[in-house]
Specification:
The chain has 270 residues and is α/β, with parallel strands linked by helices. It is 41% helix and 12% strand. It has helices at 9-12, 29-41, 59-64, 69-72, 81-84, 108-120, 138-142, 161-176, 195-211, 221-234, 239-252, and strands at residues 20-24, 47-50, 76-78, 90-94, 105-106, 125-129, 146-148, 259-261, 267-269. The strands form 2 sheets. The protein has a 7-stranded parallel β-sheet with strand order 3-2-1-6-4-7-5. Helix 2 (29-41) runs parallel beside helix 8 (161-176), helix 6 packs across helix 8 and helix 9 (195-211) runs parallel beside helix 11.
Length: 270
């Protein structure tokens, strides 16, 4: 999404400490970059990598991050999962397969609520993601506090790293901001039309339709007028939209335009 000039304060009101994202032995720099981009979309910045196959730094990762440089620049690289999660107080292991490790299993929305609750208390949390080909092994899952799995089709459960990161990050931010959207249609910029403006529009439209002998037979006119008015009432028109519609009706009436002077003083038609 492009930058919006009118961001709602509610969308920025995140008070919980964001979780870290830990990628275990990722193979491709492109996957690291797209995961970083997904993190940046939802306000996560702490990306940790365990033994990346192609080393670090990675220009492929930076290119795939699509300007999420603030995430890429702060990447930490570790030799083991234990070292990567050492400073965290609660860790979720993400997996699409059932395990022999007895852990509570949560959906991404439940995990987000737990992470936000702990983050509000200043606790450091993290999501651990596995390798592209086979995910996490049981020993790595055993290092976590809970398991996160997504409600995918069990017959096609494999997601790539960036997809899994995005879903978890999305649920976390939705919870942390109570679902606040970055922008809404501003009623201050586009206020609803006043009733007298609507009535003048109705009269204008109905007068034009009378001239065009639209209401036939005449005894049906009251019913058809009510139907037309109901249609426009349901639209919840703004004042700008009412003016536009009146311009449409005027054009269909083939009303003569008034001359308008431009800055040079010559007359132009409008």
């Amino acid at each position: 999404m492009s930058k919006n000039a009118h961001i709602r304060d509610e969308a920025r009101a995140v008070t919980a400490k964001p979780p870290a994202v830990i990628l275990c032995e990722p193979q491709l720099g492109e996957n690291i970059g797209t995961a970083a981009r997904a993190m940046a979309n939802f306000g996560l910045v702490d990306l940790r990598i365990v033994n990346p196959r192609d080393g670090w730094p990675s220009e492929k990762a930076r290119a795939s991050a699509s300007r999420a440089d603030h995430v890429i620049d702060k990447v930490q690289v570790f030799d083991s999962v234990e070292a990567a999660i050492a400073d965290l107080q609660f860790v979720f292991a993400t997996t699409a397969r059932s395990r022999e490790v007895p852990k509570p299993v949560r959906g991404p929305d439940e995990a987000a609520r737990k992470s936000v609750e702990l983050g509000e208390q200043g606790a450091a949390t993290g999501y651990l993601f596995g390798r592209e080909r086979w995910g996490l092994n049981n020993e790595e899952v055993a290092l976590s506090d809970e398991i996160v799995t997504l409600p995918v089709d069990p017959d096609f459960a494999s997601l790539n790293i960036a997809q899994a990161v995005l879903v978890c990050a999305y649920e976390w931010r939705k919870t942390a901001t109570a679902g606040a959207l970055p922008f809404l249609l501003s009623e201050e910029v586009h206020p609803p039309a006043k009733k007298d403006e609507l009535l003048r529009f109705f009269e204008h439209l109905e007068g034009a339709l009378d001239k065009a002998t639209f209401f036939r037979p005449p005894e049906r006119r009251p019913h058809m007028v009510r139907t037309l008015r109901n249609i426009f009432q349901k639209a919840e028109l703004t004042d700008q939209e009412v003016r536009a519609l009146r311009g449409v009706v005027a054009s269909l009436e083939k009303r003569e335009t008034r001359p308008r002077k431009d800055r040079s003083g010559s007359g132009n038609e409008e």
